[in-house]
Amino acid sequence: KENPTSLIVIFGATGDLAKRKLYQSLYRLYKNGSISKNFAVVGVARRPLTNEDFRANVAKSVNGAASGNADVEEFSSHFYYQPFDVTSSESYQQLKSLSSSLDQEYQTNGNRMFYLAMAPEFFGTIASNLKAEGLTDTTGFKRLVIEKPFGHSLPTAKELNEEIRGAFHESEIYRIDHYLGKEMVQNIEVIRFANALFEPLWNNRYISNIQITSSEVLGVEDRGRYYENSGALRDMVQNHMLQMVALLAMEPPIKLNPEEIRSEKVKVLRALRQIDQSEVDQYFVRGQYSAGMIEEERVPGYREENSVDPASNTETYVAGKLVIDNFRWAGVPIYIRTGKRMSSKSTKVVVQFKDIPMNLYYNRGEKVDPNLLVIHIQPDEGITLHLNAKKSGKDITTTPIKLDYSNNCIDGINTPEAYERLIFDAMRGDMTNFTHWDEVALSWSFIDQVSKAWESTTAEDFPNYEAGSVGPKKADELLKRDGFHWWNV
Ligand code: BG6
């Protein structure tokens, strides 16, 4: 197949995401020959910039990523800038004529990808204007790539969806969840479905519980305004965490195509037990960080961050117990936890297998450890299998051992690799690693119950964990009640 080509219009071209991820990712795709040289990028944003200024910014973003940057200049010559007002017809008309001439100049076959990497309140306006002003009338494909947050609740997500569906068909909408672009998140499916060893055990007969942790050291940085309205539940759980749950719990798809994979994920989300607002405390724990020490530096508490209400009720930590009501998972809790200002940056999945039926090896009265399969998502990438073996010596007692596989990983944290894959997939029309509307809707309907319960009550104990710690104590009790504990392995 030929390398894909397109005109790419980036809304929010001066924004953080574009600067930190998108330009570098495009550069890598360009550099390793994944995309055709017939591409052009139009950056739009409010601020007035010339093409030259913009290209200089792009080159600056890219230089950090590039070793040997001889062709950075050639690369950035594909970039054009247009100051833009998302509500003005004139802006769209200008963009339309610039797009047509770039279609010609770069022979992009009329393919157009509109990437919305900006404030979500304008997503709907932009999509409908793109259609109304004729930018979507093109001879090639038209695709909308849209960043999170996709709505704030089910009703707002529906509203947004209707607005964009007026201009783009579901098969043209690429909703980004950057976790789906991560190497080891993509590996979940392969580990499960390419090994005779795991899939037969991947059910409630052999697995006792699954734990998914995504902890961050960073606080809310300069995103206080956004975060106050979002909190960890909407920021991480509605999307990234539930997507990982779906990948871990789905049935094997009959084929590895986007429709089949996404439809299996949808089934998991449909089987996810809805929690009633009145029961939220039995299933979820919320936390907020206070000031504390991180890497020997004192950092402020959440309530002292910029643009944060000094009496904020917003959670920066969530732990939850999810229940999937289907044959495979009945009786197997899936625990999730995610938080900011934790002691380490780490995302991993721990699958805990059931205890052996009878223990022959009491190690001085202690039980043998259960088998664990750990999928390290970041910063380490790899898998570890925790087993038991004979402890060397005269006595027949056991000792835990580990089988380790580590991807030869470049620092996986927030690297552009995830974006690189996702942009490439969007250009070649592979929707597998983008979220379908049905997934988004089901996730929100689950999350909405929890957020309604939390928003209607004040968290009296906030702040309830110190920056640099492992989170609130209550998160331990959540598992203890079921006879489990978090594995910090
Ligand atoms: C984003 C959230 O979606 O994911 C951020 O908005 C969070 O708050 C980030 O920091 C985490 O991504 P990663 O790739 O660093 O785990």
TrEMBL record:
PROSITE patterns: G6P_DEHYDROGENASE (PS00069). Pathway: Carbohydrate degradation; pentose phosphate pathway; D-ribulose 5-phosphate from D-glucose 6-phosphate (oxidative stage): step 1/3. The keyword Cytoplasm does not apply. The active site is at H240 (proton acceptor). One of its GO terms (molecular function) is glucose-6-phosphate dehydrogenase activity. HAMAP family: G6PD. Belongs to the glucose-6-phosphate dehydrogenase family. NCBIfam families: zwf. This is Glucose-6-phosphate 1-dehydrogenase. It comes from Sutcliffiella tianshenii. The gene is zwf.
